[in-house]
Amino acid sequence: MSNLADAAPPLAKRPKLDTPAVRARPSNGQQSKRNKKANKKQDKVKPGGSEEATLYHVIELLGADKVVTLTTAGKDLNGSHRFTQFQEIELDIIELSSHGEGLGVTQEGEWVVAAPFCLPGERIRAKVVRHARLHSYADLVEVITPNRGTNGRDESRIKCKYFTQCNGCQYQMMDYTAQLDHKRLVVERAFRHFSKLSSELIPTIQATLPSPEQYKYRTKLTPHWEAYAPTHKEKLPIGFNTAGRRRLIDIEECPIATDTINKAYTAERAKVLAKATTYKRGATMLLRHSLPPRTRAAGAAGTSKTEVGEIETSQEEAKDAPVCVTDSHHLVRERIAGKDFEFNAGSFFQNNNGILDSLVNYVGEQLTTLTSGESGVKLRYLIDAYCGSGLFGLALAHHFEAVAGVEISSDSVKYARHNAQLNGISNATFLAGKAEAIFEGDLLKSYAKDATTVLIDPPRAGCDDAFLEQLLAFDPAVIVYVSCNVHTQARDIGYLVNKSEQRYSIASIRGADLFPQTYHCEGVAVLRRSIDVGANA
Hints:
By secondary structure, this protein is an alpha/beta fold.
């Protein structure tokens, strides 16, 4: 019996993935130039992206023996010999992928087909549209036999008339409890496939942290439009990409966005449509939910003529009513964990503010757990890498004697410092630079490693080697890794555990559902280094 790991792709590297170790090798030298080009293109898999995650899942479904057989025969890369162009097939869905597609195995058991908007236990009709290594992608044509079980399909849950057309949501027909459980499995699968850690080193994945709201939660929306062709006779489409296509679909309302955003979207759409023929190129609209500016919250009278880029709101709508900001340079204000945060509308900030209190509290609880009992460590310092405008560092500052944050965006650092002053937090310092810059210079000389927590919240690509090497060299007592991509998170954590020769162990792993109705899942993992009790007393 072949080992599944022998058939799997290699560990995704930073910042670029090497081509998979197991490649198709045509034995007869007869492969056409066209197929060679197709195979070369399919070899280029984005590290930690949907196709790499799906490929691991596909290999698991087919089994290592079957994968090795297909690879040896040179049949693992191109599915064009299996299906005619746009062929319709019937398929029984076995599992959901980490990115929302239903996965089924063809009758001969040699190929997997992925199709959107379907659930395990359903039989579907699908149209095959493109091929990847060991699997093909298809459009859903019809659900022949729906899954009507307790956690199965229920169309009454769907709140968007464009569901299955827009690429924004994947799970509106699913029960929310089922969505949370699936995302727990996504995190579990990510660590099984990407961390390269043995199962005994990976703790049980905790239940997914739920969002308080399943609709009307999204606090940022970016609809877009393309250049208006003079010969175009229909209304200019403003909205989002069609599912599986690079084509816009006109969408006038998004049910996962807040009411404030949708109200502003109606007004902004009208402005764009009125000038549709004047646009020489496409553009993206920014709609950002915000608390009112502090000056107005203090009690401006009458109808407030807001600053440039802010949608006007009358006093009758209550002085604390949220507003929608449409200028990327304009200020946005949010209140998280009892603290005010201000930042430019165009900069990064989490887009589901409703869950952020519980997310911050969860991280705080994990740190409290590590500091309690006889074996607890005394954590006095926090390093907040990739700190943005200071969300985690400032929200957790009361747990520590001192906080040091680093962020590559100097504009975000300016707001992190501003937010510290705004909230009367005097124990936080912020530095502009690459994440690894925090370990250079004199800033951390007073930070005893056995008393320090490092919190990292990197972009989707994860951390690069330079940062991880310096992190290990600094040797903090605790590492908290928050990520919007659980696959690169698992890869990086596996690197830290293995590179440290298991001096770091994983204390806890949990998903957080910042984006209900979609496949996106945030991950929160806590690592603890072995430490002598009382070493930092």
